[in-house]
Amino acid sequence: MTGPQAHQADDTARADDSAGGSARAGNGTMLRKLLVMAAVMFGFGFALVPFYQRICEVTGLNFLTGRDPGAERFAQNTQVDRSRVVTVEFDANSRGPWTFKPERNALDVHPGELVTIEYDITNHTAADMTGQSIPSYAPMQAARYFRKLECFCFRQQSLPAQDTRRFPVVFVVDPDLPRDIRTITLSYTFFEIPGAQAQWRAQPETRTN
User: Fold this and answer.
1) What are the pLDDT digits (tens) for 62-98?
2) What is the CATH number of domain 62-207?
3) How many CB atoms lie within 10 A of CB 57?
4) CA nearest neighbour of 107 among 206, 184, 187
5) Is 74 helix (H, G, I), strand (E, B) or coil?
């Protein structure tokens, strides 16, 4: 092939090579972006718990890192105010392959009364997994009057594959709760902690199957 036809063939070949190179470069760029996004999301799972721990330290609301050291004595020495009723609503959200729900959606309690509510958490995967629960309260000012003696949110919780466990929350509503607060919503978000080592605990959680 000679003349104009040969030049045209060369131009077509160069165009094809250029298009192929551009496609390969585009695919490489996309792959790098996806890898960066995956790394960021993986790291976010590890960073989230320390982030909340730091918030708790700064605000003095130690919901996550450990139990209230004075809650048990407080519950033993506080009079129950039977003239008041506070409705405590329980909410559960999960981030990951879990089923997470309270045994009841709400309870009417007297301030100063010792109350226990239980949550069921199911691991639907074929692998052992570890998660952490983050609590929140509404209205926010009610948080300081919500004294927890026991809570699965105090530590990471591990579940075997295809297993369900029941976790208690034991609490007392402080009688000093402002009288205009008649309803408290306790909400938990339970999410997986990637790479966390499973540590099985027999108490206080109870297997349900």
Assistant:
1) 444 456 788 888 888 889 999 999 999 999 988 778 8
2) 2.60.370.10
3) 12
4) 184
5) helix
